[in-house]
What we know:
Elements: H1 5-8, H2 18-38, H3 41-60, H4 64-72, H5 77-80, H6 83-88, H7 90-101, H8 109-112, E1 117-121, H9 126-137, E2 141-146, H10 150-162, E3 167-171, H11 179-189, E4 195-198, H12 210-228, E5 237-243, H13 244-247, H14 259-278, E6 285-291, H15 298-306, H16 310-318, H17 324-339, E7 347-349
Parallel strand pairs: 1-2, 1-4, 2-3, 4-5, 5-6, 6-7
Helix pairs in contact: 2-3, 3-4, 4-7, 9-10, 9-17, 11-12, 12-14
Amino acid sequence: MPDTAYVQQASPAYLGDSAAVAALDEELDRHWSAIQSGREAQDVQKLAAFLAEMWDAATETSKVAEVATVIRRHPIMDVLMEDTFNKRYPFAAKFRDVCRGLEIPLAGASRRSRPRRVLVTGASRGIGAGISLALAQRGLEVAICYREKRRRAAGVASTIEALGQKCHLIEGDLSRDDEPEIVARKALDHGPIDAIVLNASGGLEAGKGLSYALALNCFAQIALVSALIPRCDDGLAIIYVTSHGAHFYPGKPVLPIYEKVAHSKQRGEQTLRRMVSLASSRRPNLRVVSGDIIEGTTTAMLLDRAVPGFVARRKRQVGRLPTIGEFSSMIAAATVEEMKGIDISTRYCGSTAPYLIPE
């Protein structure tokens, strides 16, 4: 029998305990994979035994609704909706009826019988490419948005397709007023979008001022999400990728060269938070993933070029800097968790200690 300690230990709110939710979701994933691979009688029996124990544990701890919330957001709900399963296992019908009564999107055949699809912006190289690969490795279909580096984007797509996953290329300059709407329509031409990773950003480039930084880091994010929410299923997962310098701005110091980036990304993050709360009827979910200086990125190179030795001093200050792979993996994991309905707080990659700004 499976261990139900995570039900016993869950907080009264339950969904506030992300570890407990993740443990239950992982167990559901295991049973779902077994049933999908062959649907042998023994696999269905094991699922029934697991659900029976979940029902008993949830009843004893007065957490039936909380456990049912996790189940409703999982593809295993497809099985619970089957009359033959409910007739054979009466307790399953109880779970099903509780799930039906919850005012949250149903994760049954309407969404989970098709491939789950994620749109990633700024994905032709660096962190964006890493995110796309990490998502594909987790079994997701990916749509890559790039501005002009088609050859690089095609290389990322080839790697993803070699993993057995579909990848769609979408060209678009998000800093232009009309492009976010066009990018949204191009992405949806390939099918429904379940999540968007807002990774594209800029402002450190030579000759680019605050207006450009605001256009790309704030206005474009809002326009793209605004175009997607009414066209997507309820519960669109929105992942906003940012930096510690921007996330904690203006509370923590940044280099003068980074001020316009920090200001514009902070405005983008706060505006998205308000926008998502106003669109609550469609239940979009926003999660922020923030990183320290990421080693090997163009941002790290440009900061070090502006202030020689800055990156080395940061390493000495905090011990080590996160890699592109580490940050990309964290963002991909946060995306998958949000798509499964796991309520997670802002994720931080690397030290959040204030930067040591030279006089």
